[in-house]
Design a protein that fits this description.
17 helices, mainly alpha, two-stranded antiparallel ribbon
């Protein structure tokens, strides 16, 4: 077994208030069991892996390692330097791992609200990734993500919690949510659509970035879910990488009439990366193929479309933002 969050090693000194230190040690032991992942699901990279498998495993292990780091010592002054020590291109995944750990701790110590404080404080440039990770943490702890999302008070990026929740369920409960195509009963309305964004990302990962397999899997879902699944695939392939330009061109062809939704996800990935100066070659050619423009231009378009969003409580601002992006690239 591989522990996503292992128990604290015996005898390890964690400098902090004595009471909180003991509580964190308890959390580490408890979460070590809750976050155990079968080695059949999560294998380390090997010499024989192809480029896409190597990349996907690198991403998963970065998130995992940073989740471990966060639970063992979530103090900002020690956590941020550790996250920033990762290669710049992987920084978003490092902060996503921190989001997993912080949300898990928040379920055990809810008065702390560590996730919100971190995402709106020192981790603010990576807020989207932190909230994606938080959704994964909540799923692993079997907590309904909706109350957590509402408490964040963020009408835009707060929805990423449900995206992360969907990714976890699609990846770690693949049979139930991808093969059997179930939806969580505690999510309603637009929340189910954002859940499917995460499901789309999980399909990209679980398929090993096999384009034909991705297309066949999504085609098996009901028509009303396919657009959102393709948006998730667009974000995953644009942000994560691990494939070459011809593969992205093939992905665009397989998406068919859903190409515009694929472009939404790719444009979002460009915005996320350029926001922190965390650019990558794979993000550039994904944007060129799927959005028809360099990633810097796609990012600028996405950011400009966020301005002046209505505040109608009946229609989520995040939904309106993505609708604008779809019209831009469809």
């Amino acid at each position: 077994m591989v522990d996503l969050i292992p128990a604290s090693p015996a005898g390890r000194e964690i400098p902090a208030d004595a009471g909180e230190s003991k509580l964190r040690t308890f959390a580490g032991n408890l979460l070590g069991k809750v976050f155990a992942v079968s080695s059949a699901t999560l294998k380390p990279p090997t010499v024989g892996d192809d480029a896409s498998s190597t990349r996907l495993k690198q991403v998963v292990f970065t998130v995992t390692e940073c989740c471990q780091t966060t639970v063992l010592d979530p103090r900002v002054e020690t956590l941020v330097p550790k996250l920033d020590a990762y290669d710049k291109e992987l920084a978003g995944f490092a902060y996503e791992g921190a989001g997993v750990g912080l949300a898990a701790l928040d379920t055990l110590m809810p008065t702390k609200r560590r996730t919100l404080a971190f995402a709106t404080g020192p981790g603010a440039p990576y807020i989207f990734g932190i909230y994606l990770g938080a959704g994964m943490g909540l799923a692993r702890m079997r907590f309904n993500p909706e109350p957590f999302r509402r408490r964040l008070g963020d009408p835009l990026f707060g929805w990423a919690v449900l995206d992360g929740y969907g990714f976890h369920q699609g990846f770690f409960a693949h049979k139930r949510y991808v093969i059997e195509q179930r939806l969580p009963g505690h999510l309603r309305g637009y929340g189910r659509r954002v859940f499917d964004h995460g499901m789309g990302r999980s399909i990209w990962f679980s398929s090993g970035a096999d384009v034909d397999r991705v297309g066949a899997t999504i085609a098996g879902f009901c028509e009303t879910r396919q657009a959102d699944l393709w948006q998730g695939v667009g974000l995953a392939c644009g942000y994560t990488g691990g494939v070459d330009r011809p593969t992205i061109e093939r992905l665009r062809a397989v998406a068919g009439e859903r190409q515009g939704h694929l472009a939404v996800g790719s444009a979002m990935s460009a915005s996320i990366r350029h926001h922190v100066g965390n650019t990558a070659d794979h993000n550039d050619f994904a944007s060129e193929v799927l959005c028809g423009m360099p990633s810097a231009e796609a990012a600028a378009a996405v950011d400009s479309l966020r301005r002046g969003l209505p505040t109608d409580p009946e229609v989520p601002a995040y939904a309106l933002w993505r609708q604008r992006i779809l019209r831009q690239f469809e």
